[in-house]
Design a protein that fits this description.
single chain; mainly beta; two-stranded antiparallel ribbon; 1 helix; 32 strands
């Protein structure tokens, strides 16, 4: 699925260090294993991605160092489908390029300062042209967004004796964003329900937006006696785009129980502002939203029981003034959600997330290692005074990992995931035939996210064998298998691919098939290190 190469070394008698890596992906080869020949008939698709990374570190003096790093990445999807009465052309690309420099200095034995300056560019280009004569449908989307960001940040740390540590800093960012967007949906069979956006949509938006963010923070950490450590912090943020100032206080406590045990407690406010490149123009938004505020509570316990490490965390997150969200109810994973029939707006008055997470980790051994985590959680929105599950809610979730090294050359590992099925929305429909033999659907949609898909479970497997090559080289052969047991995990409902059955009374029965995640997906490769 990809080719990767990397190298590293030193220069200037060891005072300088460098590293570089590059990767090129061929995801279309992997997906070919998961496609049915009949389903892929008439399709021509290419999925590519690449990234490069480089880094140079140099010690200016024994107490100062300078680092320069560059990162470039891009992924593209070219899709073309031509059949009898259909035409589909999708061409998307996303690019990211960053350069950043870091200066670190020790100003005496008690003071440390870290300075970071960066420049970045993010390019987003989505193009879609889909036309169908039966049923009549036309989707024409163009979405071009170019973002440039400049950033400067400085963090200080100062040790005040044996019991006090002070840290503070600032951050400044500037974004310049260009929008060029247009869509023209004209969707067939719109859902006649006021909760859904209408099928006829025409949105055009072209504008330039700029904004700055300024932040100051300070925190003081104090150790009381030999067991309790407390940290009090305060952060101020200024957003010029929405002309708002926010203040975020935070408190963290750590109590040492001795013999490897620790008790943690935390509370704080966190504000999430909308960045200039996050304007939801695809859904008709032209104004930026105010920052959402989240209040976090967490209580954690960690200890050694025998040789096993046990950890338990209880958390609560209350969100006030959450951002308005747009979702596709029946298939949330879609490249062009603004062109879906099941698009809804969710203006939640508040939101919350709470739960408990438990983990157990076995002692590290040369041949066998394992760990397991379990979480019980709930994620809800408050809509019109009612509690509504979010699409990402999963009541129970278990993740387990096992790694076995039967010999020096072989390494085998398994990862098992299981969680409650994600929420979905009940859907049914009645079909009628028009005089010109067109099928018209009358949808019946239940309460949002009041039903669930079946439980999700997946077992992944990896096997590798390493041999020595030459004096200092190693050659590793590996095979990865995702979804080893080929579980059919439900992802969404195929709203636009309804299946019809004529009943004896002449009526039509409507069935909406369920779309699944990828089936068993093997990949293999070789790593040569020298």
């Amino acid at each position: 699925s990809n080719v990767w190469a990397g190298s590293a070394g030193t220069f200037a008698d060891g005072t300088g260090r460098w590293m570089a890596s590059g990767r090129r992906g061929f995801l279309e080869i992997v997906l070919a294993f998961a496609e049915d020949e009949e389903e892929s008939s008439g399709e021509d698709q290419t999925i590519r991605y690449w990234d490069v990374f480089g880094k140079i570190d140099y010690d200016l003096t024994p107490s100062q160092s300078l680092s320069l790093q560059v990162l470039g990445a891009e992924d593209t999807l070219d899709f073309d489908e031509t059949e009898d009465d259909e035409r589909a052309a999708i061409d998307t690309s996303y690019g990211n390029n960053y350069v950043w420099a870091t200066h670190q200095a020790l100003l005496g034995p008690e003071t440390f300062v870290n300075t970071l300056a960066s420049i970045g560019r993010i390019d987003r280009d989505r193009v879609a042209l889909i036309t169908e004569e039966i049923p009549p449908e036309s989707i024409d989307i163009r979405d071009v967004r170019d973002t440039e960001v400049l950033s400067l940040r400085q963090d200080w740390g100062h040790q005040l004796g044996d019991r006090h540590f002070l840290k503070w800093g600032f951050e400044a960012r500037r974004w310049d964003v260009t929008y060029d967007y247009r869509n023209e949906a004209g969707l067939a069979d719109p859902i006649d329900d006021p909760r859904f956006l209408p099928g006829d949509r025409l949105t055009e938006f072209a504008a330039d937006h700029s904004g700055e963010q300024y932040a100051l923070y300070a925190a003081e950490r104090t150790r009381f006696g030999g067991s309790l450590t407390a940290e009090l912090g305060l952060r101020w943020d200024r957003q010029t785009l929405t002309d708002e100032d926010t203040v975020s206080p935070r408190v963290n406590l750590v109590y040492d129980l001795g013999s490897g045990g620790v008790l943690r407690a935390g509370w704080g406010h966190f504000h999430q502002s909308q960045r200039p490149y996050e304007l939801a123009v695809e859904f008709g938004e032209t104004e930026f939203q105010q920052a959402a505020r989240a209040e976090h509570f967490i209580l954690g316990y960690e200890n050694l029981i025998g040789q096993y490490r046990v950890r338990a965390d209880v958390f609560r997150r209350d969100i006030t003034d959450p951002h308005v969200r747009y979702e596709t109810l029946f298939d949330p994973f879609n490249i062009f959600p603004e062109a879906r029939t099941d698009l809804v707006v969710l203006p939640a008055e508040a939101a919350s997330a709470d739960g408990v997470e438990l983990s157990l980790r076995a002692p590290t051994k040369p041949k066998l290692n394992w760990w397991v985590t379990y979480s019980l959680s709930s994620v809800e929105d408050e809509l019109d005074g009612r509690a509504v599950k979010r699409s990402i809610d999963q009541t129970h979730a278990v993740t387990a990992s096992l790694s076995w090294r039967p010999s020096r050359k072989w390494n085998l590992s398994w990862v098992w995931l299981h969680h409650t099925g994600w929420p979905t929305t009940p859907l049914s429909a009645e079909a009628t035939l028009t005089p010109d033999d067109q099928i018209v659907l009358d949808y019946d949609v239940g309460e949002f996210y009041s039903d669930r898909f079946n439980d999700y479970q997946r077992l992944d497997f990896r096997a590798s064998r390493t041999t020595e090559v030459g004096k200092d080289g190693t050659l590793t052969f590996f095979i990865d298998v995702q979804n080893l047991l080929n579980q059919e995990n439900e992802r969404g409902i195929e709203l636009n691919d309804a299946e019809y059955t004529f009943l004896p009374d002449g009526s039509l029965e409507v069935d909406f098939p369920v779309d699944d995640w990828l089936p068993i997906l093997p990949s293999f490769g070789v790593i040569w290190e020298f």
